[in-house]
Write a structure and sequence with these properties.
This protein has helices at about 1-5, 40-45, 65-85, 125-140, 165-170, 190-200, 220-230, 240-255, 265-270, 280-285, 295-305, 315-320; strands at about 15, 30, 50-55, 90-95, 145-150, 150-155, 180, 185-190, 210, 215, 235-240. It is α/β, with parallel strands linked by helices. It has a four-stranded parallel sheet with strand order 3-4-5-9, with helices on both faces. Strands 6-8-10 form a three-stranded mixed sheet. The protein has a two-stranded parallel ribbon with strand order 1-2. It is globular. It starts with a helix and ends with a helix.
């Protein structure tokens, strides 16, 4: 987001909590701030024409509600109030498609879907739905705000890396022991950023846009990674029912080893969610067009390689070593 704004000639101020590795060396004013502290947000937002609110706590656990609520819900309430106090011209709030109900899965998810705000949904989903309600309350008070609902974001500049970036690295390093049946709608981070920037300029106050990409199964992703890197795919593919039985054990084992579990009850639930996520409104009103998934995958793996997080052997080298 920051890179795109700078490339388009906008002066930027970047709010950082702890890690600023992703913006090191960029021509942006860096302000250390805590989203849980409304007063620090007010001072950070003072003089800003537009605030892009991307800060959130992402969790694949059913047990992280206290932290998620503090960051995603209370934090968004603080952002809204600080924007109102500072006289910010427009707030662009980044939500997620997970904030919307996926059922019925027989019909596409679009902007008319109700929020996933019941206890039936995972904590992260509920927190983002509650955060959207905070934005709507701000709009009722006179705040000019719009909401962006991307699907699963992937792409270059994944410094941490993200959960899915970690899965891609595990695939490319042959360290993912098994695949799971299922998939999700994946969208390139660059397309989401571009769509958000166009929406910031063109959308009416209160508008919501789903920015989706392409539904691709985990097995197809693994096959593409194998083709791109020359490394073999995992041999085992688990049905979802079997993966669900083993998820608690995998989660506990990962926590004991200080690692983030990739296969949890929450992530497995996402892999069997609605395959049909419509970006028709964004295409019609913003000219939004997500790029092909394979292009995103190639660029992401290449970025990991260029950033020193992945060594991709060439097929010829592999053949010579066999």
């Amino acid at each position: 987001m920051v890179r795109a704004l700078i490339n388009n000639g906008y002066p930027t101020r970047s709010m950082v909590h702890v890690n600023c590795h992703a913006i090191d060396g960029l021509d942006t004013e860096v302000v250390r701030c805590d989203i849980r502290d409304q007063e620090s947000l007010y001072h950070t937002f003072s003089g800003a024409d537009v605030v892009y609110h991307l800060a959130a706590c992402i969790s694949l656990s059913m047990r992280d509600w206290p932290l998620i609520e503090t960051v995603n819900v209370t934090g968004t309430r603080n952002v809204v109030e600080a924007c109102l106090r500072a006289g910010v011209g427009r707030l662009v709030h980044f939500s997620t498609v997970h904030a919307l109900q996926q059922e019925p899965v027989s019909t596409p998810v679009d902007e008319s879907r109700p929020l996933a705000d019941s206890q039936h949904y995972p904590p992260y989903d509920r927190s983002k739905a509650a955060a959207e309600k905070e934005v709507r309350r701000g709009i009722e008070k006179g705040l000019d705000a719009i909401i962006i609902n991307p699907t699963a974001i992937i792409g270059p500049y994944d410094f941490q890396p993200s959960y899915f970036g970690e899965a891609l690295l595990s695939l490319a390093r042959c360290k993912l022991p098994a695949l799971v049946v299922g998939g999700f709608d994946w969208v390139d981070v660059r397309d989401v950023v571009e769509g958000a920037m166009v929406a910031e300029k063109q959308a009416l106050a209160g508008a919501r846009y789903i920015l989706s990409g392409h539904w691709v199964s985990m097995c197809d992703i693994a096959a593409m990674v194998a083709e791109i890197t020359g490394m073999p795919s995992p041999r085992f593919v688990l049905p979802l029912w079997m993966a669900r039985l083993g998820a608690p054990v995998i989660t506990a084992f990962s926590r004991l080893n200080g690692k983030r579990p990739l296969y949890t009850t929450v992530s497995l639930r996402a892999l069997r969610s609605n395959r049909h996520i419509s970006h028709a409104r964004a295409t019609s009103e913003l000219g939004y067009q997500p790029r092909p998934f394979r292009e995103t995958l190639v660029d992401t793996l290449r970025w990991f390689e260029d950033n020193g997080q992945l060594a991709i052997p060439r097929k010829r080298d592999i053949e010579e070593s066999m």
